[in-house]
Write a structure and sequence with these properties.
Chain A: This is Transport permease protein. The complex is a heterodimer of chains A (about 280) and B (about 250). By secondary structure, chain A is mainly alpha-helical. Chain A has one domain. Chain A has 13 helices and no strands. Chain A starts with a helix and ends with a helix. The relative contact order of chain A is 0.14. The model of chain A has no long low-confidence stretch (mean pLDDT about 90). Chain B is of the alpha/beta class. Chain B has a domain of about 140 residues: Rossmann fold (3-Layer(aba) Sandwich). Helix content of chain B is about 40%, strand content about 30%. In chain B, the strands form two sheets. A six-stranded mixed beta sheet of chain B has the order 5-6-7-3-8-9, sandwiched between helices. Chain B has a three-stranded antiparallel beta sheet with strand order 2-1-4, with helices on one face. In chain B, helix 4 packs across helix 5. Chain B is globular and about 50 Å long. The mean pLDDT of chain B is about 80. Classes of the chains: A mainly alpha (about 280), B alpha/beta (about 250). At the A-B interface, helix 2, helix 5 and helix 8 of A face helix 1 and helix 3 of B.
């Protein structure tokens, strides 16, 4: 409770640190904020070329929207993923990277990872706005889904924050964490149906049947990955334009709550020691 | 006497001296432990009160625990034993310009640094002109901080810190910054703070400065409190002990 009050008192600091990250990043570039679109656009072009043009991957048409544009279908999963990955990467670095600050001044340490989430979130909002415009141009009726979309975005942000808090703390003890996570994120991305539809995974799993004579299939294990459900929900809202599957939503909610609870517990237990450990 | 501004009770702070520190996962797993260490007590059972409205000096040689004590006061470190109670808003000047972003303008950095030091936006708005004026950099306030000379950088940082307007200000030898006229300005500002009834804690090697400014002083040696009392008496005893130590060295050498 005391921590919460303190955090409220330092919301100006949180805003200023977030602005520092946002403003400082693209200073002295000609394109400025547009650079934040460059990464997802480049990824979109590469994946569309390889997976749609060469490998002829065909995700289901949007139902009921009727959309059939691979690039947009891809972005509906890719942008949330890029946000998660940015939060984790920047969150991890936030404590070690601000060591001089932590060793000189007292303030609630949690504002540092939260500012990283804020800066990544700002970029994500910008990207999603561009995606919404693109979707509307090709005929998707996304506007009514924006309130639900925002809610799910907040859930993902909460989920990502929890992970970032744990990893930022771990990185203070073991600097390996940062490098380890880069690899883990790559594996995690391919274990999530971002550049291929989940239906392919379903077919592959059905062909294989139960594992080791049990009724547990590869798909069951695959679905333990929370991001499978998040990406599903984002696609249902943005690409299909319909209510997300309630089970998916519930799974997202449970993962978010669990993640933030663990994140806060780990971080608050260690935050007093950070100055000495760095 | 009234309630003390800061009350330090039996404070001890332990550091671990690592003979082997395994900050990589590999060694932690292979050895099954993260470190081999010895304990080193940077502060041992230190207790004293700083009266409200006074200027208080903390003296001692290098490694005596001054900076550790300061960081404990600033809540950067947390004591392993004992407690520190403060009455009123506390600001610590351990370093000037903490958290400045080189690409951002002076103006943006004033807001950033001000909020790091615990000021609210409205407060900074109100004090902005005074801060810029004190630092004497009106012409350059909208330039990126990386273009500042080191003097300008330090003046701006110091000016922000001093305008936090705390009830208790802790200063760690930062007065050695800037040219003579800026130092004079700083001393004047400290005088003004004192006149307003604020408490200033000054940590310094510079005995003359402590002598000039402080009413009371504490002397730390190897993490223990040796003497606390009138500044003149404390400094006198410190000087004597330094003199005997020096002659010891000469005799043995």
């Amino acid at each position: 409770m005391r921590g919460l009050k303190e955090l409220l008192e330092s919301r100006d600091l949180l805003v200023n640190l977030t602005l520092r990250d946002i403003r400082g990043k693209y200073r002295r570039t000609v394109l400025g904020q547009l650079w934040s679109l460059a990464n997802p656009l480049a990824a979109m072009l590469i994946y569309t070329f390889v997976f749609s043009f060469i490998l002829r991957l065909q995700p289901d048409r949007g139902d009921p929207s009727g959309l059939d544009v691979f690039a947009l279908w891809l972005l509906c999963g890719l942008l949330p993923w890029a946000f998660l990955s940015n939060v984790i990467n920047q969150g991890i670095a936030s404590i070690v990277g601000n060591a001089s600050l932590i060793q000189k001044v007292y303030f609630p340490r949690i504002v540092l990872p939260l500012a990283a989430v804020g800066a990544a979130g700002f970029n994500w909002l910008f990207e999603m706005a561009v995606l919404l415009i693109a979707l509307s141009i090709v005929g998707a009726f996304v506007l009514p889904w924006i309130p639900v979309l925002l809610l799910v975005m907040i859930l993902l942000a909460v989920f990502a924050t929890g992970i970032a808090l744990v990893l930022a703390t771990a990185n203070v003890y073991f600097r390996d964490t940062e490098y380890f996570v880069t690899i883990l994120l790559q594996i995690w991305m391919y274990l999530t149906p971002i550049i291929y539809p989940v239906s392919l995974m379903r077919t592959a799993s059905a062909d294989l049947g139960g594992l080791f004579g049990t009724s547990v299939t590869v798909l069951d294990i695959y679905q333990l990955n929370p991001m499978v459900h998040f990406v599903d929900v984002f696609r249902q809202l943005l690409y299909d334009n319909r209510w997300p599957d309630p089970t998916d939503l519930l799974v997202c909610l449970v993962w978010s709550v669990a993640s933030i609870a663990i994140g806060l517990a780990v971080f608050s237990r260690n935050q007093k020691k950070l100055a000495e450990l760095l | 006497m009234s309630i003390p501004a800061v009350s330090i009770t039996n404070v001890s702070k332990r550091f671990r001296l690592y003979r082997e520190r395994n900050q990589t996962l590999k060694s932690a797993i292979m050895r099954g432990r993260t470190s081999i260490h010895e304990d080193f007590w940077a502060l041992q059972d230190v207790s004293f009160d700083v009266p409200a409205g006074s200027t208080f000096g903390v003296i001692g040689r290098n490694g005596s625990g001054k900076s550790t004590l300061l960081k404990c006061l600033a809540k950067v470190y947390f004591p392993d034993a004992g407690s520190i109670t403060t009455n009123g808003r506390l600001a610590a000047l351990l370093e000037v310009g903490t958290g400045f972003h080189p690409e951002l303008s002076g103006r943006e950095n004033v807001y950033l640094n001000g909020s790091i030091l615990g000021m609210q936006r409205k407060e900074i708005d109100a004090k902005f002109d005074a801060i810029v004026d004190f630092a004497n950099i009106e012409r350059f306030i909208d330039q990126p901080v990386k273009t500042y000379s080191s003097g300008m950088y330090v003046r701006l940082g110091f000016s922000i810190a001093i305008h936090v307007n705390p009830d208790i200000l802790i200063v760690d030898e930062v007065l050695a910054v800037g040219d003579a006229s800026f130092q004079a300005k700083c001393l004047e500002k400290f005088g003004a703070l004192k006149a307003e009834g604020k408490t200033v804690i000054l940590v310094s090697h510079a005995l003359t400065m402590v002598e000039e400014m402080c009413e009371r002083a504490a002397w730390l040696d190897r993490g223990r409190l040796v003497h606390v009392g009138e500044a003149a008496t404390t400094i006198e005893r410190y000087r004597q002990s330094e003199a005997t130590d020096d002659s010891d060295v000469q005799e043995s050498g």
